[in-house]
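Q: Here's a chain of 275 amino acids. Please give me its 3D structure as tokens.
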Amino acid sequence: MLKQAMASILTPAEAEEMYGAFDQIGSKIILRIPDSLISKRKLIGQVLLEKVKTAKSVFYQSSPVEGDYRIRQLELLAGEDSTETEYKEHGCRFKVDVEKTFFSPRLATERLRIAEIVTDGETIVNMFGGVGMFSIVAAKKKKCHVYNIDINPHAAKLCSENIALNKLKGTVESIEGDASDVIEKKLTGVGDRVLMLLPERSDEFLHSAIKALKPKGVLHYYCHVHADKKNQVSTEATNHFMSVVDVDAKVLGSKIVRPVGPRFYQAVVDAVLSK
């Protein structure tokens, strides 16, 4: 759709260089633009704003997601100069700031998958919970209690607001802080289930995730995997997880969550740990 929208302002060769997709979060569009077309970014943004009737702003992502807060730099190309919006998913409403907090609409399928396998009565520790997406979708569907931890104060604040926005079967508690510190001080041994939604640093926090679990519990370990073929990803993720976990682990399954680059994938390993 993006390449088609640019047909009126780019040559066929330039259009071919454009990335094929963009993210729309509520009324905000975020797109990446190849270096060869940076000089035309304002024009690209204006045309896209005209084409997508539900959009109010178009931003160019000028940096990767990085830092402890997992945020990215955005440049306004067209429309309203505001990074706040409301996003709806799986019957839930969310306030999001696309510049001050991490958020990906491409995890919607995984959020629903987790919510559906949670059972009533569970206590869940979501170690890198952001604005509460995984936590709130789970508590919308099941009578669970979720501790949503995030070191980013903007994310923790928005999570609290999002809890109030939604009618939930379960409960969610927003906690601002470093996940390891919070678990050490408050949440050791409480979790029936732990989510590790920081794939680039999962090994670093694995010990804390295990500490958050009850003597027996379920861990969702997210990681990045390089693989020449998609059918290799699950095995690679499982093998890596089993090489780093230091307690008894039974893998329930592993899968691709989403591609993140050429031959580069985000994967998840679901495992029951006994300690």
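Q: Can you summarize the key feature?
A: The two ends are 50 Å apart (CA to CA).
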